[in-house]
């Protein structure tokens, strides 16, 4: 693994046929933050995006980990014009190079399950464990199975720590509705 001795900042532009130049993507990873994550945090990262709705439209993509006190540890941020597979691949290529992630072996990624991100992870860091954020899983579950009983049982299942307990807890949800 080659360790960079500097911060990584990258900006890409799109040149239109009429020679107009537009901002496309912006990546920032400060050396001290990156090194701190590499040296002191678990190799688990959470990746997500949010809309920028001010004067400059686009999306902010962020990568965070957890430090030894289980606090949020910001690692990288990116601004892109849209959250899609192309931009996720661009982002992951630079990120993996920065953190020395190679093909993703030993790295776990938690995300909202955005289709473009799922595909980009498979292509760029195929050895990484990729898991979905339980809050997003619950939001989808709630669309079909709403109500206090489902909510309580869902979170019981989520907190199951061993396989026999997980199976027993999922059976509780299946008693309400076999499709759940």
TrEMBL record:
<feature type="domain" description="MULE transposase">
    <location>
        <begin position="44"/>
        <end position="140"/>
    </location>
</feature>
<dbReference type="InterPro" id="IPR018289">
    <property type="entry name" value="MULE_transposase_dom"/>
</dbReference>
<dbReference type="Pfam" id="PF10551">
    <property type="entry name" value="MULE"/>
</dbReference>
<protein>
    <recommendedName>
        <fullName>MULE transposase domain-containing protein</fullName>
    </recommendedName>
</protein>
